[in-house]
User: Which sequence fits this backbone?
C-alpha cells in the first residue's frame, strides 16, 4: 500500500487489527498530548509497527504513524 506524505497510517486510540512492515520511505511516530502531538520516533524501511494493538487486550493503537 502507498501513502501520500502527511497521511496517517495509524491513529492513537483507534482499534488496530493489522501489523505493518515499512518496505520503503519514512514515517513519523507521534503521541497525542494536551498541547497537540509530540514526535516520539521515526521509522524507515525495514521497521515494523502495529504489533501492540494485536497483542494488547484493548486492541488500541498507542501512537500515530504518519508518512513522510
Assistant:
Amino acid at each position: 500500500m502507498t501513502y501520500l506524505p502527511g497521511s496517517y497510517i495509524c491513529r492513537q486510540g483507534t482499534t488496530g487489527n493489522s501489523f505493518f512492515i515499512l518496505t520503503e520511505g519514512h514515517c513519523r511516530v507521534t503521541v497525542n498530548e494536551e498541547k497537540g502531538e509530540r514526535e516520539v520516533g521515526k521509522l524507515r524501511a525495514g521497521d515494523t509497527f502495529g504489533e501492540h494493538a494485536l497483542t494488547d487486550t484493548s486492541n488500541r493503537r498507542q501512537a500515530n504513524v504518519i508518512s513522510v
Remarks:
- The longest strand covers residues 36-44.
- The chain has a mean pLDDT of 95.
